[in-house]
Amino acid sequence: MSDWDGIPEHWGAGHYRDIPWSKYVLAGRRRHIEDLKRQSDPAFPYYYDDKAADRAVAVAAMLRQFEGEWFNQPLELSDWEEWDIIRPIFGWLRKDNNLRRYRTAYVEVARGNGKSTIAALVAVILTAADREPSAQVYSAATKEEQARIVWDYARKMVELSPELREEFRVHRNALVNDTLWSSYKPIGRDSKTQDGFSVHGGVVDEYHAHKDSGMFDVLSSGRRSRRQPLLFIITTAGFGLETPCKKESDFAKRLLEGSLQNDQYFAFIATVDDPEKWQDPDEWIKANPNWGISVNVDQFMAEFQEALQLPSKQNGFKTKRLNIWCEQASRWLTREAWLKCGGPVDRYALAGRRCFAGLDLGISRDITSLILAFMDEKDQGDKEANILPKVNLLGFHWVPEGMLWVKKQTDNVDYPTWADQGWIQTTPGDTTRYDYVRKKLNELAREFEIAEIAVDKAHAHQLMTQLADDDLTVVDHSQSMAAMTYPCKTFEELVIQGRLGHGDDPVLAWMADNVAVIKGADDKMKVAKDKSANRVDGITAAVMAVGRLMLSPEPVNNVYESRGIAFA
């Protein structure tokens, strides 16, 4: 049996049939076909009504687009939007009362495929085309500002529509239909009220961004008094495998696979069939049914090339562009980019030069790393061309002598050879002696002008106090997203541009190969020690040193007149 057996010939010709489709999209179509066959069974409580589906599609034709080259043109649904989502949701009815079958609809598709437009269309249908008296329809998000995105799409498309603009009054926070006394409003967790709702329709946009199910639950519980309520969830995949949206996604997939049964739950998921084949163009199209329509192929390819070159971008590309659920941590630096930064760093030429230090103290038996970052005097980059100044690093690493051979076995790295070659220094015993680190820092302070020593005070309070007593300036450098985003991004850009001289330090090279980062909201990031493949202490220290250097590249008079511990 082909994927098209049982589908009427007039359904979704052309693009709809000719491109690769996700297994979950095909599963949804098979479910629809099987239900069409079952509707003749008296025991099956639902039937498909072409006229009901036509009414929903007709609303789309009345709306007008408001962006770019399509401004003021009728909203024309893509084949998959019409036949895989809108018609099934609004065409299936109950035999006993002719009300809508589906109470919840979950739609998951990659960015750029018109999610907000579909969500806005659904909201307008629920507000006016359902002919539900006093219908309350809401867009919900973690913040009202986010919820207004879909609401604003609906407002603009309605205001441009000759047929619909007279049906609605537009208020600052509501679209109101006076004939039906119905309304459509945006709400967020920060809205003044979330209680007392009688929800005929709820739209949850980008559910993956919700840290909990609070807003989902508000809408869901508000449906109880309505005859045919619809909760419409539309999202892209996200980070984290224990989020409310991921659990909803898993439920929808099991439903499509047939391992779960819920006749009142609709699901559409467009994603790759094999996440390991994320570089396969056929897989791209499966996750992007609007490929070449609203999905700009040139922009997609530019982002793909960036993800190939920089592992830290890969998870973001996979989630947003290919609709693949990922853990937050992702490998950060490519070996090729790191090797481009190779070559000797002349320590003697740096004598007396101003630098910034980053210190990451290994807990007990871990590696302790100290990195000094110097601005290159001869290569200041090019601001107009966005080329950063070159930065040179000097690295120092410590391991407890008693653990040298043990760590060789546990980390599968030749620490003894590194120690023989001088890349690693040892301290007596089985734990790192911080007094050796202190002594080294004081020696280096006589060799170089160390402007600041950045260190996380969580594991270094005593040493920080001692260094301050030694008349060195110590800065508490938090490892939070807020504190690490700029240093990480700057370090990353230096590596990409080949502007980070690391002196072929093999310890740093090994750590660069291990390091992963966690990406958060607004493109924030930090080094993820617990998610990295192995030790990354030197990279953490280097990131802090580079961040402090680039924030304060030139000496500032009187800033360090009083030595001591500073807090940043």
Description of the structure:
This protein has 568 residues and is of the alpha/beta class. It contains 19 helices and 21 strands. It has an eight-stranded mixed sheet with strand order 5-6-7-4-8-9-3-10, with helices on both faces. Strand 16, helix 16 and strand 17 form a beta-alpha-beta unit. Helix 3 packs across helix 5 and helix 17 packs across helix 19 (537-551). The N and C termini lie far apart (66 Å).
Give structural attributes:
568 residues, alpha/beta, eight-stranded mixed beta sheet, 21 strands, 18% strand, elongated
Helix content: 25-40%
Overall 3D shape? elongated
Low-confidence stretches: 556-565
The largest β sheet comes out as: 8 strands, mixed
Counted beta strands:
21
How far apart are the termini?
66 Å
Radius of gyration: 30 Å
Q: Which strand order do you get reading across the main beta sheet? A: 5-6-7-4-8-9-3-10
Mean pLDDT: 87
User: From the structure provided, what is the oligomeric state, counting identical versus distinct chains?
Assistant: single chain
Number of helices: 19
What structural class is derived from the secondary structure elements?
alpha/beta
- Beta fraction: 15-25%
Quick description:
With 568 residues, this protein is an alpha/beta fold.
Strand and helix layout:
Layout: H1 15-18, H2 23-38, E1 46-48, H3 50-62, H4 79-91, E2 92-94, E3 104-108, H5 115-129, E4 136-141, H6 144-159, E5 169-171, E6 174-177, E7 182-188, E8 199-205, H7 214-221, E9 230-235, H8 244-257, E10 265-269, H9 281-287, H10 297-309, H11 314-322, E11 329-331, H12 335-340, E12 354-360, E13 368-375, E14 391-400, H13 404-411, H14 415-421, E15 425-427, H15 434-447, E16 449-455, H16 461-469, E17 474-476, H17 481-496, E18 500-501, H18 506-514, E19 516-519, E20 525-527, H19 537-551, E21 565-567
Parallel strand pairs: 3-9, 3-10, 4-7, 4-8, 8-9, 12-16, 14-15, 14-18, 16-17, 17-21
Antiparallel strand pairs: 1-2, 5-6, 6-7, 11-19, 12-13, 13-14, 19-20
